[in-house]
Design goal:
The protein is built from 13 helices and 16 strands. It is of the alpha/beta class. The chain folds into two domains: 145 residues, Aspartate Aminotransferase, domain 1 (Alpha-Beta Complex), CATH 3.90.1150; 262 residues, Aspartate Aminotransferase, domain 2. The chain has a seven-stranded mixed beta sheet with strand order 4-12-11-10-7-5-6, sandwiched between helices. A four-stranded mixed beta sheet has the order 1-2-3-15. The longest helix is centred in the first third of the chain and has 17 residues.
């Protein structure tokens, strides 16, 4: 006889407003009771391999004891104090550590609670940088089609205006300058012309380096970042990298920009910063940007301050996560994972309804040709024992860097079979 499910599943979830779901028609959420390694344990006893590391955050896997112990120790000392007028060692040392890790040109860390807000702060910094110099024209940003930077009103305005999830709000958002991300000389020339036309009103250029994540896992070569750096320098613009998704090893280097040797003026970090345990984000700026706010005039201060800014528990988790990158072979694991994703997903390239298979670091993407039933595909993957959340026309994998060989093999087989099942005439590799 099947065990009865806990009452909270029905009693509580009927009051929850779920993310990214038309709740009238969507399948109910899966109730999770515990996690470990790369596994999600459900209330009904099923165990799923998490193929997306909880929206790309749990890079060390779930429940890593080093992070858990660090948070427990910090909890006994000080869980949180306001950051307005106060400071504490975990936040101070983490700021120093992040700047050292990022390297020359990164000097000041502004803490927030989420990736969206970190990008909002970066945009606010860039605009006020010019306002503090008396230039009130530079209030817009150059952003790119296929991009995604968050769900708040400021960040919605720099997401893809047509294909993105925020097109409903078109007309209510600030109108920024949108361009195709240049991938060759003709599109680079097109971008040059766009920037030339709008340079006097631009505060900066905003881009996701190497991978446009939630916009479709669209990848571009490192040379694009070098050209954007040149373009920003030519027109005196601030260059902002949104590394919320790509930071902390996901693309094969600690930070994606390292593959291009093209440093930004401002960078945003979150997601894997705490190893998927507590909300924390950072907007890190160069000393040159910071000096635009260094003044005797109170109005030149950056008037922003989230309530839980610099939360001590989250900073302790971030320290422990960074320790793991130093003490364990994370980037070597990413390289091995990249090779496994390439080999495991390669058979999908032979399917006529697959448009593309692309791999970068610990990111594997199968792009499908519509139409197909996304809900049925997700259900098929759950039935196979994995948690993968397709969106748009892609199935993507961003597993923990520490996933076991057995769980990775199960994950890859499940994706191959599910993609193959989109056409009943094809044989399966069960």
């Amino acid at each position: 006889m099947a065990a009865s499910l806990p009452s909270w599943i029905d009693d509580g979830t009927r009051h929850v407003w779920r993310p990214y779901a038309q709740m009238k028609t969507a399948a109910p959420p899966l109730p999770v009771v515990r996690t470990h390694g790369s596994r999600i344990e459900l209330a009904d006893g099923r165990s799923l391999v998490d193929g997306v590391a909880s929206w790309w955050t749990a890079c060390h896997g779930y429940n890593h004891p080093a992070i858990a112990d660090a948070v427990r120790r910090q909890l006994d000392t000080m869980p949180h104090v306001m950051f307005g007028g106060l400071t504490h060692e975990p936040a101070a040392r983490l700021a120093q550590r992040l700047c050292t890790l990022l390297g020359p040109g990164f000097d000041r860390v502004f803490y927030t609670d989420s990736g969206s807000v970190a990008v909002e702060v970066a945009m606010k910094m860039a605009v006020q940088y010019w306002l503090n110099q008396g230039d009130r024209r530079r209030t817009r940003f150059l952003a790119f089609r296929g991009g995604y930077h968050g769900d708040t009103f400021g960040t919605m305005a720099v997401c893809d205006p047509d294909e993105g999830m925020h097109s409903l709000f078109r007309g209510l958002l600030t109108q920024h300058v949108m361009a195709p991300l240049p991938r060759d000389e003709p599109t680079m020339a097109q971008l040059d012309a766009i920037v030339q036309e709008h340079a006097d009103e631009l505060a900066g250029i905003l881009v996701e380096p190497l991978v446009q994540g939630a916009g479709g896992m669209l990848m571009h070569p490192p040379g694009v970042l070098r050209r954007l750096r040149e373009l920003a320098d030519r027109h005196g613009l601030l260059l902002i990298y949104d590394e919320i998704f790509t930071g902390f090893g996901r693309t094969g280097t600690m930070f994606a920009f390292e593959q291009a040797d093209a440093r930004p003026d401002i960078i945003t970090l979150s997601k894997a910063l705490t190893g998927g345990t507590l909300p924390l984000a950072a907007t890190v700026a160069s000393q040159g940007v910071f000096e635009g706010f260094w003044s005797d005039d109170p109005s030149h201060a950056l008037m922003h301050g989230p309530t839980f800014m610099g939360n001590a528990l989250a900073c302790a988790a971030a320290h422990a996560s960074l320790d793991l990158f130093e003490q364990e072979p994370r980037l070597a694991q990413v390289a091995a994972l990249s090779a496994a994703l390439e080999a495991g997903l390669a058979p999908c390239r032979d399917l006529p309804w697959v448009r593309d298979v692309r791999i970068l670091g610990a990111i594997g993407v199968v792009e499908l040709a519509p139409p197909f039933d996304r809900d049925a595909l997700r259900a098929r993957l759950i039935e196979a024992g994995v948690w993968v959340r397709p969106f748009g026309n892609i199935v993507y994998l961003t597993p923990a860097f520490t996933i076991s060989d057995e769980d990775l093999a199960l994950l890859l087989a499940a994706v191959r079979n599910a993609v193959c099942d989109l056409h009943p005439a094809r044989s399966h590799d069960r």
